[in-house]
Model the fold of this input.
Amino acid sequence: MDFSKIDLFEGIKGSEVNCMMSCFGAVFRTFRAGATVYDYPESGDEVGVMLKGGATMIRTDENGEVSVMEIFAEGDIFGEVLAFSNAAGDSVKVIAESDCEVMFIKYSQITKRCEKACEHHSRLVQNMFGLIAKKTLSLSQRIEILSKRSTRDKLMCYFRILARTCGDEFELPMSVTRLAAYVSADRSAMTRELSRMQADGLIEINKKKIRLKKVC
Amino acid sequence: MDFSKIDLFEGIKGSEVNCMMSCFGAVFRTFRAGATVYDYPESGDEVGVMLKGGATMIRTDENGEVSVMEIFAEGDIFGEVLAFSNAAGDSVKVIAESDCEVMFIKYSQITKRCEKACEHHSRLVQNMFGLIAKKTLSLSQRIEILSKRSTRDKLMCYFRILARTCGDEFELPMSVTRLAAYVSADRSAMTRELSRMQADGLIEINKKKIRLKKVC
DNA sequence: CTCAAAATGTTGCAAATGCAACAACCATTT
DNA sequence: AAATGGTTGTTGCATTTGCAACATTTTGAG
Done:
């Protein structure tokens, strides 16, 4: 297993990473696309580290309304203690978007100093620090999107965020149906709005390929 | 200054806290209600710790649209590195809701180990950890609220969250105008909806006092 | 290949919401 | 007391949005 690309272990040698695994009681699992990676009511204080592939955190409320909470790519971490409140007791799951590989460790083992006082434990804490900061950033981005009043503004806001890393032409990192859940809009209404946006010359859209046309 | 109630310093003796202040280059300031506590484009890598009073983080976009991003009470921390993306380059400020007292420290001084290697520095990092986790929780709560489709659902979601800590009868922690910004709805439309909710027997509302009536 | 399930695209209609404009109220300052 | 600025409450109207229902296309499994 190559951990060199995983941010959580940055600055920690591969050999030492393996050594740390026993402290953490790390467990490795692989999942097929569509499988449930993490089921919140059950998964206690475990932290998941996405080693390979991608997944989406999905909340389903009592009315069956679905909303996308977070999107995980390689290197991202997730877990109940890390990220969210489940106020309403809704069902919250992480679903594999593609085949993926995940490492699970106990949160409590990370935050408390282990008896052996691994030298690299504190570095790991620092890394974790940075990852959580990154996560708050993405949550905050989501809030920026959701706080727009109209579906059009929400979409434009999201597209501009994507464009900042990918340029004015990019591919949606999720299905249109998921996108609707992500911006918290009705799918059909959103599709209608996407058409209008194209008609108004704001974007060009072809399947999942999108091109921002106007600078703004 | 009494730090015993500030989560960031939990488990660190008062005398040692004072000792640490020099490492951090802590600066203390007081603000009147309505004053600007923190202005993001300018305030670099500083972390604010709310020692006394309360404040609100407000984003204003290019159209003058206002949205409340976070609400800070005693013990909460805030800062650019901690929480948010400013994608659009909008104006983001922290405004004192009441008279308040804030301590500012440099983020970089917290994350990097200081030369003196204070014994308690690592405890501070652990505490900071917990605070950020708490922050992600509140961001995630906000997302839970914003991802509801209707204004009524947003409000009920928020009220239930408040009720969990305060019981079925509580006082709004912000003005109605701010509440509208928080749930990202038009103020007048929200007021209208609040009346309807009362008419429908869901809540009783009197100024800022709210009572949840139906269990659900 | 074939079938079933899921995703996508489209439309009409009713309801919710934003918007604008206004009046009433409150607190603070002069 | 008067003036000022901010918050609150209300209403009519145009627009947006959600919702439901349906046809079409794509995907995946056997």
